[in-house]
Amino acid sequence: MTNGFDARLAEVLNAATENIRRTVAANLVPAPKVALPTPRLEGLSKAVAPLRSALERLDAMMPENWQGQRLAYKDMVRLMLEGVPLAWVPPADVIRQLLAADDVRSRAKVLDDSRTEILASCSKALASVTDARFTAQRALLEECVRMIGGGMFSGAQALAANVWDTFVRGLAFANPAWLTDRGWWPGYTKIKQSVPTVDVDDDATIGQFRRAAVFLPFAQTLEEFRRQHPVPEGFNRHATAHAAGAVQYTAANAVIALMLEPELITLPSGTQYVPDFWLPEVGTWLEVKGPHTPRREKATELGTARACPCTGACGCRWPGGQLVLLGCPSHRSPNQIGYRGRHGHACWAAAYGPSAYLTECPSCARAQWVTLRRPWRCRGCRASLGATPRFYSPAEQLIRFGEGASLTSARVDEDIRRLAEEERLANAGDDEPGDW
Question: Are residues 260 and 289 in the same domain?
Answer without folding.
Answer: no
